[in-house]
Amino acid sequence: MRRLIGFVLCSLILGLPKWSEDLSAQDVGTPPANLEFFQQLALQHSPSVHAARHRITSAKGLHVQAGLLPNPVVGYHANEIGMHDSNGAHGVFIRQRIPASKKRNLDIDIAAQQLAQFQFELSLTQKRIKTDVAISFGKLLIAQKRLDTLVRLEQSALASMQSTKQLFEAGQSGQHVLLQSQLEYEQSHLQALQAQQDVKTAWYTLQSICGTSDSQVKRVSGELMKIVDPVSWDFIVESIIQQNPAVALLSYRIEEQQLRLKRQQVDTAPDVDFMLSFRHHSLTDDDVANIQIGLPIPVFNDNRGNISSAQAQVKVLENELDILKIKLRVRVSQVFRDYENARLAEKRYRETMLPIAEKNLGLVQKGYESRQMDYLSFLTAQRTFLRINLSYLEASEKLFEAVSLLNGQLLDNHLAN
User: Fold this and answer.
1) What structural domains does the chain harbor?
2) 47-to-73, 122, 202, 412, 417 alpha-carbon distances in Å
3) In Å, what is the CA distance from 311 to each residue of 35, 117, 179, 247, 350?
4) pLDDT tens per residue, range 247-287
5) What are the b/e assignments for 161-175, b being 16+ CB within 10 Å?
6) What is the rounded distance in angstroms from the CA atom of residue 271 to the CA atom of residue 291?
7) Residue 154 CA: distances (Å) to CA of 53, 185, 297
8) Which pLDDT score is estimated for 142?
């Protein structure tokens, strides 16, 4: 119950916003190109998910196989051939090995534990993919916003260049001002072209992660992160360590190795070899039956080497779990730092600096167009507006990535495996 409550609280605090389903470039009836759409698309097409599911199917087969008894052996045998010039004794036999119940039950438990591990691996893979998609989607969304800003700047630079040209032709401005305005327009035009390429690259990256190859760049639907309230670092660490599938997977591996240790400890429990035979003796014309039961005696091999090895493997995995928790704590501290810095910056830019830059640019642009301000003041306001907007988008991108990582329990980069 505590884990469930922690998960719900973490989702409420750090949860990704519900993306708007409005997409201007889409037709009615077309699925919205939002984050959830791309995550589901990636899960459907990912070879990693398919491979994980096939491993589960394989583990299910091994689990069934572990519960099956060995096949009986049926054969023909003959002995005492030629005794007193007779044909000897001829007959058939059936032999069955009956494994010790302790060993068989442990084999079944080990197979079941491996099945549970592969099921957790599937969950881990799906989380990694969804986190990768979220980060890639955020980069595309920010690239769109950046392009919108630069296009607006390009239009503003074009308008100022046209105004400067009119002033120059009227003899109210020097040629150097006109040349400067032309350079500003060319630079803004180049930045807009480069931003278009960034959008294309972000789109192709997202499509590659989703396992599709749609070459037509589409506009995705979503809003930038807007998180104001701070979150407790201790709460985040506890939630991630408790809910992280990698921790659960390693815990399952420890339980499996403990079962393997028990399996090695009971390995000397004897399997019963049972044989029953029937034969006809041609010398006496008698029909006879033989019963044979055999048990191995653990005199020379008490399996001490395998037991010692299995004990050491348990300790290795327990230490690996401790190391994983330390790594998670270290990475949480780094991601949480990025989250806090981005959250503070995004809030400051959005609530204070963006409105000031917007208002300042509007006032200066009107003043320049009405001949009340010089071009240098307008140029300074324009550059400040661009710098503040791009810095805001950079903070938003870092916030988006940090929240995506925290929501995904730091599980990302699924293609690295």
Assistant:
1) 2-8+33-297+306-416 (1.20.1600.10)
2) 43, 12, 21, 16, 12
3) 46, 20, 79, 21, 57
4) 888 998 999 999 999 999 998 888 889 999 988 887 788 88
5) bebbeebbeeeebee
6) 17
7) 50, 6, 89
8) 92
Residues 6+ apart with CB under 8 A from 248: 120
What amino acid is encoded at 334 in this protein? Q
Residue 25 in this model has a pLDDT that exceeds 50: no
What pLDDT sits at residue 373?
81
* Alpha-carbon gap, residue 309 to 299, rounded angstroms: 20
pTM: 0.76
Most confident of 13-27, 68-82, 155-169, 228-242: 68-82
List the alpha helices (DSSP H) in 266-353.
Answer: 304-348
For residue 181, pLDDT beyond 90: no
Task: Using DSSP, state whether 126 is helix, strand or coil.
Answer: helix
Rounded to whole angstroms, how far apart are CA atoms 154 and 190? 9
Compute the distance between CA of residue 52 and CA of residue 128 in angstroms, rounded to an integer. 13
Residue 91 contacts residue 277 (beta carbons within 8 Å): yes
* pLDDT attached to residue 349: 93
